[in-house]
Amino acid sequence: MSGGAGAEAARVTPVLDVRGLSVGYGGRGGVTQVTHEVSLTVAPGEMLALVGESGSGKTTTAQAALNLLPQGGQVLAGSVHLEGEDVTDAPASRWRSLRGRRIGLVPQDPAGSLDPTKRIGDSIAEAFRIHRAAPRRVLAGRVLELLERVGLDDPARRAKQYPHELSGGMKQRVLIAGAIALGPGLLIADEPTSALDVTVQRRIMELLDDLRRESGTGVLLVTHDLALAGDHADRVLVLQGGRVQEEGRADVVLAAPAAEYTRRLLADAPTLATPVHRVARAPEVADAGVAPELTEPPCWRCATSR
Ligand SMILES: Nc1ncnc2c1ncn2[C@@H]1O[C@H](COP(=O)(O)OP(=O)(O)OP(=O)(O)O)[C@@H](O)[C@H]1O
């Protein structure tokens, strides 16, 4: 776990405040409710992990917070506040402005999320262009700064490359660069590392940790991976069948879960048996092209088993 926003964070306005959110899917034939009065907050600089088995409502909750529910999805009750602004019923035009500027999205599939016909630099510049957020003369420099910020070596060369010339981890770094381009207060990361191998996965999570520490960006992490949540999130919120089962500090909930459902999830989580975060790093092999970096994070699992 890292970040340490904790109690201090509770006193400031959350970057995301979801209250009593119920979502359903359907049409004329009727609506099936899939989440039930879910409430959560993400403070500046904090990472909250939404965990739960497949179908528990993690993605639906994150999509509702972004106002990006798929067709047929509808908010049945509840509210969403972004940095104190009630955006529950905000019009589409307001949401277009909020996404990118105030909320960044880190997608699950880096390979499928970049335009294969666009150079990396142009993809990142797109965020500035859409929001008219940087004059043309400074755009190239801003793109290079971002590529450097997310740990890519030789930013000038990377900016000219196409997605197929980059590894999966590097593509995810590019997408993170695009997501943070306009300095949003909140990043929503839905299984951001599930398509990556373990070593690269860990370095991407460390990058997210660094960004939130340096910029105070809050992160809502959607993951089915309890080990990942335990190693990186400040707090976890456990969903089952669209209902909150428990919520609390990640180290506390995962070391001593109060809910029977969380105990079962932990018992069924094979990765918890192996401290994957302690796997020896071989960045030059697994994540070539990424600048060397980072120190060893503290380990809640080792601490609790000592
Ligand atoms: N587009 C959709 N249309 C109808 N039902 C949907 C749709 N998307 C999700 N659901 C339903 O909503 C419920 C919650 O799904 P959701 O994808 O939010 O769960 P999840 O916890 O993110 O699962 P996973 O980890 O598999 O992504 C499930 O019952 C699912 O079948």
Automatic annotation (TrEMBL):
Q: Does the record carry Membrane as a key word?
A: yes
Query: Cross-referenced Pfam families, in alphabetical order?
Result: ABC_tran
Major location category of this protein: membrane
Among InterPro entries, the record links this protein to:
AAA+_ATPase, ABC_Ni/Peptide_Import, ABC_transporter-like_ATP-bd, ABC_transporter-like_CS, P-loop_NTPase
- Subcellular localization, per the record? Cell membrane
By what name is this protein known?
Answer: ABC transporter domain-containing protein
What membrane topology does the UniProt entry give?
A: Peripheral membrane protein
Q: Does the keyword Phosphoprotein apply?
A: no
Q: Which family does it belong to?
A: Belongs to the ABC transporter superfamily.
An MF annotation (GO) of this entry: ATP hydrolysis activity
Q: Which domain of life is it from?
A: Bacteria
Show the Gene3D superfamilies listed in the entry: P-loop containing nucleotide triphosphate hydrolases
Segments forming domain ABC transporter: 18-266
Q: Which GO terms of the cellular component aspect does the record hold?
A: plasma membrane
Source organism of the structure = Litorihabitans aurantiacus
Q: Which CDD domains match?
A: ABC_NikE_OppD_transporters
Keywords associated with the record? ATP-binding, Cell membrane, Membrane, Nucleotide-binding, Transport
